[in-house]
Design brief:
The protein has 14 helices and 13 strands. It is an alpha+beta fold. It has a five-stranded mixed beta sheet with strand order 5-6-1-7-8.
Length: 356
């Protein structure tokens, strides 16, 4: 039997700030960029649970949060500090895992199938992890335990805040059935609206739907939706320290077919990918772009170079050529991704550049 857990930190950025600002502990507080300063998004990055009681949420303009709660504590963001805290948490989480996959700054899946034999042992193990994170780092988290990644994530949502929840395989359907479709892992706001328009209000509605009809309506994503709604997910916990590829993805604020905007995104992502490549001392051979259209169709297009390369400018060139060749005319993109793969350690002139 597979046993998977998802660890997600509670109100992460504000919880980190509470550690070094005693005065805001347990108070309504938010972290966000300063609305008065240039370049800030001017939105709430996250809100403490005390602030959420007043309806203050991530993504809300700071100005609105203030209107709701005049004496709200406001802390400017400090990503470096959150990354430092994240690294401490993840180092601990790893010690409890057969396999470890970090999926965001405050979240990781672990496979504990070998470490625990059964739900009870898994629960005991995760209680230990939760306690250790609290005692050694001082931060609260929530943990979901189940038989796959999807259900572990859904269980963790049900455990929030500061809890642990086990959802057994045989209880998955009932656990999901009454929740609104928008709460299903992987379903964003737009999909959720489309699903509701088709009359699927709850995850249970979607689970009972005819998969053939779902595929007609949502293409290949329809099959995935149907599986998810039934608590089915075969994907493995992917160990991410085993770097075999380097990638970036960007979701556009609004679906777009604007070549200028897309090529700029490709350029930016290629640059980031190139920087990672240099840092890790790899050479690459394959460049891939991922095109996700507004109708959920997703295409991967690759080109293999004749030799392994360390030329980072070439990443953007090849990715842009692939885009021009394969982007479907008249379609709009929801998301674009750039990936380099078939990597090998590059030993070349590393020293020279290091001392340059
Ligand atoms: N974040 C962000 N912008 C968003 C959402 C989140 O910058 N729109 C940041 C701030 C969060 C962190 O990512 O602290 C983790 O996001 P989560 O979605 O896990 O939310 P929280 O950890 O804040 O709260 P929860 O207790 O609900 O997990
Ligand atoms: Ca979180
Ligand atoms: Ca998270």
């Amino acid at each position: 039997m597979r046993l998977i857990a998802l660890i997600d930190m509670d109100y992460f950025f504000v919880a980190c700030e509470e550690l070094r600002h005693r005065e805001i502990r347990g108070k309504p507080a938010v972290v966000g960029s300063d609305p008065k300063r240039e370049g800030g998004r001017g939105v709430v990055m996250t809100a403490s649970y005390a602030a959420r009681k007043f309806g203050i949420r991530s993504g809300m303009p700071i100005s609105m949060a203030y209107r709701i709660k005049k004496d709200l504590a406001y802390v400017p963001q400090d990503f470096e500090y959150y990354e430092e805290m994240s690294a401490k948490v993840m180092a601990l989480v790893k010690t409890y895992a057969d396999k470890f996959e970090q999926v965001s700054i405050d979240e990781a899946f672990i496979d504990i199938s070998k470490m625990a034999s059964g739900y009870d042992e898994a629960l005991e193990l995760m209680k230990g992890l939760k306690k250790e994170i609290r005692e050694k780092i001082g931060l609260p988290c929530s943990i979901g335990i189940s038989v796959n990644k999807l259900m572990a994530k859904m269980a963790s949502e049900g455990a929030k805040p500061d809890g642990i929840k086990v959802v057994k395989e045989e209880d998955a359907a009932v656990f999901l059935a009454k929740k609104p479709v928008g709460e299903l892992y992987g379903v964003g706001r737009k999909t959720s609206r489309m699903l509701e328009e088709f009359g699927y209000r709850t995850i249970g509605d979607l689970a009972k739907a005819n998969p053939v009809v779902l595929v007609e309506r949502f293409k290949s994503y329809g099959a995935e939706l149907h599986n998810s709604a039934n608590g089915i997910d075969d994907s493995d916990v992917q160990e991410n320290w085993e770097v075999k590829s380097i990638s970036r993805e960007r979701t556009f604020g609004r679906d777009t077919s604007d070549r200028h905007e897309i090529v700029k995104a490709i350029g930016d992502m290629s640059k980031e990918v190139g920087e990672d490549l240099k840092k890790q001392g790899f050479a690459y051979k394959v460049v891939t772009i991922k095109l996700r259209y507004s109708d959920f169709e997703e295409n991967l297009r690759s080109r293999s170079l004749t030799h392994r390369s360390v030329d980072t400018d070439e990443i953007a060139q090849v990715a842009t050529q692939l885009f021009d060749k394969y982007m479907e005319k008249g379609e709009e993109l929801r998301k674009i991704g750039v990936r380099i793969s078939n990597l090998a350690k590059y030993k070349g002139q590393k020293r020279m550049t290091e001392y340059a």
